[in-house]
Amino acid sequence: MKKRKKNTVKSFGVSKMKKALDTGFLLSIGIASIAKENAEKIVGEIVRKGRLNEGQGRKLVGDLVKRSKKERERVRRLLMR
Q1: pLDDT, tens only, 17-68
Q2: How far apart, in whole angstroms, are the C-alpha atoms of residue 62 and residue 8?
């Protein structure tokens, strides 16, 4: 007789959790890239209106991207618990 591998509740739960973590991580990366694109559009409009010069606009986008990366890392850590 062949031994069949039992699909235990524990292995099912781990598999489901891994999928949720993978999905959450990919979602956070997607959100970060969308955030950068939106930040560039918004800051570009502010620069066009003359409220910031180009150098200030680039710095602001850079700061926003850094914040986004920190937030993405925070989300990753939360999901990995």
Answers
A1: 777 767 776 776 676 677 788 889 989 999 999 999 999 999 988 988 888 7
A2: 48
In a domain, 75, yes or no: yes
Note whether residue 20 is domain-resident.
Answer: no
The count of domains in the chain is: 1
Kindly state the greatest CA–CA separation across the chain.
79
Task: Please report whether residue 79 resides in a domain.
Answer: yes
- Tell me which residue of 35, 27, 34, 23 sits closest to 67, measured CA to CA: 35
The backbone torsions φ and ψ at residue 7, rounded to the nearest 5 degrees and listed phi first, read -90, 90
Q: State the residue for tokens 């970060």.
A: 32
Residue 45: inside a domain? yes
Q: What is the pLDDT of residue 9?
A: 47
Task: Give the predicted TM-score (pTM) of the model.
Answer: 0.56
